[in-house]
Design brief:
single chain; about 90 residues; YaeB-like fold
């Protein structure tokens, strides 16, 4: 039986999701849900210099960390293509 991961979205990305248009919110939500069955989907990449991964959803990015020991996908940031990486530098 395959391992089942659990996705947790931190407060800041959750607030952003709530403000987005419904169609975009649904696309991002489906992508997060799919991470629970495959935390390394096609197109995901590890970010150089960070213990984080990114998943592209159109012009948007989902930045997440894997907690392998607890089978948790922790969504730490969601943002547009250019801005999401700037927030990681803070």
């Amino acid at each position: 039986m395959p391992e089942t991961w659990h996705a947790i979205v931190l407060r800041d990305p959750e607030k952003l999701l709530a403000k987005l248009p419904k169609d975009l919110r649904q696309r991002l939500g489906k992508a997060i849900d799919r991470l629970e069955t495959d935390p390394h989907p096609p197109g995901s990449e590890r970010l150089t210099g960070y213990d984080l991964y990114r998943l592209r959803v159109g012009d948007w990015r989902i930045i997440y960390r894997l907690e392998d020991d607890r089978l948790i996908v922790l969504v730490v940031e969601i943002g547009s293509r250019g801005g999401v990486y700037k927030s990681l530098a803070r």
